[in-house]
Amino acid sequence: MLATEFLKKIRQIEIRTKKLVNTMFAGEYKSTFKGTGVEFLDVREYLPGDDVRTIDWKVTARMGRPYVKKFAEDRELIVILCVDASGSGHFSTRKQFKIEQAAEIAATLAFSAVRNNDKVGLMFFTDRVEKYVPPKKGRFHVLRLVRDILFFEPQSKGTDPILALEFLMNILKRRAILFFVSDFIGSGFEPEKLRIPMGVVAQRHDFVAISINDPVEDMLPRIGLVLLEDAETGEIVTIDTGERKLLDAYRAHRLQQVHGRQQLLKSLGIDSIDLQTMDDFTPKLHKFFQERAKRYR
Predict the structure, then answer these.
(1) How does pLDDT run across 143-188, given as a tens digit for each residue?
(2) Which of 177, 218, 222 is nearest to 201 (CA)?
(3) Are residues 134 and 173 in contact, defined by beta-carbon separation less than 8 angstroms?
(4) Residue 120, Cβ neighbours under 10 Å: how many?
């Protein structure tokens, strides 16, 4: 890609996502994700209805009347965008590649975070940890992350989500918000394999799973003989999409995969957003913010 096209693509994403952050998502990110602790500010006199657990007994004894401690929420959060960079991300039969949609979603989340003075980091994984960008603040840092998501070239095409989760557990020393962006396709995504490592991460961090898929992955079209190449393994097979039994078997297998993933996330208490490449992701992200904010009020 030429340098001018490169910059134009990043600029388009910045304009689109910042507009969303300043309009549709204004305030929603802040009300959805809470700080991880509290900071002591001052004391004031006790008022009827105050929690007795906040009484400062030393000040109360000294002043001869009850005083309570005042606290402020520690708003600074750490947001990590964990992006699946395996070969299947460069696939689409519709509007855009999965990885392109991932970049727009990540940019929206990142700009929402820096608008609230939070730090944002990025990790790419395939069947290895390809790259880790430590959390920082600021517009230029976010633009760097968007550039990396769009144009990063991984060394591998396979997928190992467990290795990615283990890396995050080792490197993150305080609670963070993890947005795990993937198509959840591959041998490493079986629920029985993911249950324990994903459950451990979800206990320590605020885990949100974002799945991006293409309609063809859910239901093959009837177009006769088709040569297919696995984007991650390179395996090539020829199938006859005119065979009804084959299409039904594939559809049943795919439904089982999706159902297994949804049940796994639900059982672990992990929030999720399901998207497809032809979707405008903004309504679903908006709904996610609203529903989550209501649930945690």
Answers:
(1) 888 888 778 888 988 899 999 999 999 999 888 999 999 999 887 8
(2) 177
(3) no
(4) 27
Question: Is the four-CA dihedral 263, 206, 211, 272 of positive or negative sign?
Answer: positive
CA dist., res. 67 & res. 63, Å (int):
8
- CA max distance for the chain: 88
Q: Which residues contact 55 (CB under 8 A, 6 or more apart)?
A: 46, 66, 67, 68, 69
Tell me the fold of 3-31+76-295.
Answer: Rossmann fold (3.40.50)
How remote is the C-alpha of 274 from its chain's centroid? 11
Least reliable range by pLDDT among 12-16, 122-126, 146-150: 12-16
The tokens 């959805």 sit on which residue?
32
DSSP state of 164: H
- Inter-residue contact 38 to 49 (CB < 8 Å): no
Tokens of 25: 């998502």
Element (DSSP H or E) covering residue 201: helix 191-204
Counting residues of the chain whose pLDDT is more than 90, the rounded percentage is: 32
Averaged pLDDT score across all residues of the chain: 81
Pair of tokens at residue 271? 């929030």
Taking the mean position of all CA atoms in its chain, how far away is CA 48?
Answer: 42
The predicted pLDDT at position 2 comes to 46
Q: Which of 231, 189, 199 is nearest to 214 (CA)?
A: 231
* Contact indicator for 40, 67 with CB cutoff of 8 Å: no
287 DSSP assignment: H
Round to whole Å and give the CA distance between 119 and 137.
Answer: 5
Task: Please name the amino acid found at residue 98.
Answer: K
pLDDT range class, residue 260, cuts 50, 70, 90: very high
Domain boundaries, the chain: 3-31+76-295, 36-74
